[in-house]
Amino acid sequence: MSKIYQPLLLLLLVLITSCSTEDISSQNDTNPDISTEINYNSIDLEIIQLINSHREDLGLSKLNLLDIASLEAKAHSEYMIDQGQPSHDFFFLRQQNLQVTVNAIHVSENVAYGYTTAQTVFNAWLNSDLHKQNLEQSSLSDIGVYSDVDSSGKRYYTNIFLKR
Q: Where is the SCP domain (predicted)?
């Protein structure tokens, strides 16, 4: 091996061995944007109850509340608040994350904003064919839910539906 490549090899070796999982986890602890805990508010819990009651009325199975899907929903609701408008931006990333982390076979989502109660947002989804189809799919197994308000008090909602 030539003397020119030896310093490069040594530098590469130092770089590879200098990273550790401990360093990475300590970085995550100090980053306020990375959260592994979900706190459901009363509107979120009522949305789940309304959806599951509706599904039972149709003879469909209840959906299990899945925290990891709610974390994806939380990140998206916060993104929509930052953008100041509802969207399905980057849905493919949420879908891929859930396919990898929980082996989701199918992922869909409903979003909304501006509704002040669980009942009013639920009614809006029922009055929209595509949103209604998402929550009435017979093969679904799980749901992730998150809503939050922006600085002006407008609430943003994200529901993520899964089949595993």
A: 49-157
